Amino acid sequence: MPVRSLGSQTVAGECLADQRDRYSTYAELAASEVAGRDYNIRVVRRPNSEIAIIAPHGGSIERRTSDIATAIAGDDFNLYLFEGLDEQGSFDTLHLTSHRFDEPRCIELITHCPVVVAVHGFSSKQQEVMLGGLDEMLKRRIAQHMALVGVDIKADGHAYPGLHKKNICNRGGRGRGIQLELSDGLRGGSDENAVIQSARSVLLSLSDEH
Questions:
Q1: Rounded to an integer, what distance in angstroms lies between the CA atom of residue 196 and that of residue 199?
Q2: Which one, of 76, 55, 56, 78, lies nearest residue 67 by Cα?
Q3: The pLDDT of residue 207
Q4: End-to-end CA distance of the chain
Q5: Could you report the per-residue pLDDT of 129-186, keeping only the tens digit for each?
Q6: Hey, how many other C-beta atoms are within 10 angstroms of the C-beta on 87?
Q7: Domains and CATH numbers, the chain
Q8: pLDDT digit string (tens) for 17-59?
Q9: Burial degree of 163 (CB within 10 A; 0-12, 13-18, 19+)
C-alpha cells in the first residue's frame, strides 16, 4: 500500500503529499467518493473527556492507524476515524494532507477538545516514532515516556514536525496539538503496544491533573 515518503518536504518542513493528493478539501472528496462504499467516518464521544484521538488517514489509507488510535482512546477519550475501505489501499484516492483535512465532523469534535492527538503512518522498515505538533510541553512528556520504555522516538529535526497552524492536530480548542507519526515497521510490530500504552499513560495523567 502506498505511504508517504520521508523525502517529500517543503522548506517549512511540511509534507508535500498535498501536491499528490487527488482532492484538496473534504468537499471535493465527498463529491466524488461514496461514504459507506469508499470510506467511513466514525465519531465516538466521551462526554467527560477533553481529549480527542484522531486518525484522519485511517483504514486502508495508512495501515493500522485506526486500530492504534482506537487503542489509545480506549473507553476514556473522544475518538475520530476517517477510514478508507478499499482493501487494496486507498492512499492515492483518499489521502488529504493534514493541513487540508477539513472534514466537518472532525472539526466539530476537536473544536471542543483542548488536547488533540493525531495518529499517522509513514514509510520506514524500522520501528520508530516521529513526534510533532505545536503542543511543545505535551510533546516532551510523551517523548520522555516513550524513550523510557525503549521506543525509538524523535521529537525534533525529523520529516514531520506538524507545525502548520491548519494541521488538523493543531485545530483543537487551544490551537496546538500532537502529531504521532508511526513507521510502517512499528505498526503491527513489537513496539506498537509500548507506543499505545505510553500515549495512554501520559494522557490519563493529564486528565487527572484537571
A1: 5
A2: 55
A3: 72
A4: 41
A5: 999 999 999 999 999 999 999 999 999 999 999 999 999 999 999 999 999 999 999 9
A6: 9
A7: 16-202 (3.40.630.100)
A8: 555 899 999 999 999 999 999 999 999 999 999 999 999 999 9
A9: middle
Q: Where are the beta strands (DSSP E) in the chain?
A: 39-44, 51-59, 78-84, 115-122, 129-132, 153-154, 178-183
Residue 209 burial (10 A CB sphere; 0-12, 13-18, 19+): exposed
Residue type, 87: E
| Angle separating helix axes 65-73 and 192-208, nearest 10 degrees | 40
DSSP 39: E
Place of cell 480548542: 173
